[in-house]
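Go through this fold for my students:
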Amino acid sequence: MKTKAIGSLFVLFAIVAGLVALTPAAFADHSEVTITPAPGSGVPGCELTEGCYIPKEATVDVGGKVIFSNTDIAAHTFTAGTAADGPSGVFDTSLVIAGSSYEWTATTVGDFPYYCMVHPWMEGLIVVQEAGAEEDHGDTMTDELTVTITDSEVLGGTQIELEFSQEHVNYEITATQNDETVYTETAHAMEHTVTHQIDVVGSDDSPIDIEVVSLGIGVPGEEDSWTGPTGTVATSKVVPEFGTIAMMILAVSIISIVAVTAKSKVIPRF
């Protein structure tokens, strides 16, 4: 019997979540944040990846300090506003040469987009909040999903048991053998545990690869409201014993035929 748990960071997540639950929101420190341009952001392309400013979205408390530090080799501006609408006047560093910095103190709650006037594809966002405000990290019950895969041999095939850490998981399970799909099903796990049976595929006892893909957590037919992670959440390799089962069935058949022959003295024809 083989078991694999998914979510390599789940245990760490649980520990951290427990510590956070014991820590008052007032201790969240957003009194200062430093923003730097992404390396090489002086040429287009950063806007298509992780963003042209690090962090792309920064959070600071009212009265907190924002430090614009130019760690790039090119000169940049950190100008409140957008490239489309122009400067908003909230702050403007003017041209900050490489190795220099500029400080701005946040005084008003709100979202403040900014950009570089020299390189207008560079855009970022500063979120100013009340001191001690609790950040929305999402519903931790739906941000993580673990799946345990257990297999066992049954007459005529292999039984796969899936144990989900949450209920109402919509998923797809696929089994492949020798690069061919031998079983696939899209299903909904109303409870934590469900089972699937993969029937015997000829006399082949080569390993079967199992993959479980999460489609979301929620009521079937209401995909727009589904939450939780999507994508592959579990894989496992099953080694079936189809050959052994087949031989056992054949052995029982032969024994039965021999027993009947001994009583009836009739020689069976094959």
Observations:
- The domain at 29-129 is CATH 2.60.40.420 (Immunoglobulin-like).
- The radius of gyration is 30 Å.
- Helices lie at 10-21, 140-143, 242-264.
